[in-house]
Amino acid sequence: TTVFVLNGPNLNLLGRREPHVYGSTTLADIETLVREKAETLGAAIMFRQSNHEGQLVDWIQEAGAQGAGIVINAGAYTHTSIALRDAISGSGAPTVEIHISNVHAREGFRHRSLIAPVSVGVICGFGPMSYVLGLEAVHQVMAERAR
Ligand code: DQA
What is the pTM of this model? Predict the structure, then answer.
């Protein structure tokens, strides 16, 4: 299986950005964790980050065209982007929404996700481990669908 691990706005600053909320792990550290897990699963990983909504739309479409799965931390676009939601539902790619922080323990505007209804499921609050759990989840879903 191929899995696109997509990161939205401000996640390039992980490790420096609000470390009391997001911890000291960088996105490069997270990529290493994800690649280690991918190796044990036999999955190929496309690990990408963009601050631009349209770029994320392009990558979601690319994942769909390749028959890949998606693990996405859409950052703040989670709470605002109809474009990402439409891209996910249109792509047909099995998608797992993830967050580093427990968004439900935070401000009210983070409790609503526009992409959760078109995702297989949501994982949040486990820090960098949310990515690893998300990868396992989407890999499992794809294996089941292939059977
Ligand atoms: C986040 C949670 C979002 O609400 C926030 O806008 C982010 C990061 C997380 O991983 O905890 O940028 O997606």
Answer: 0.97
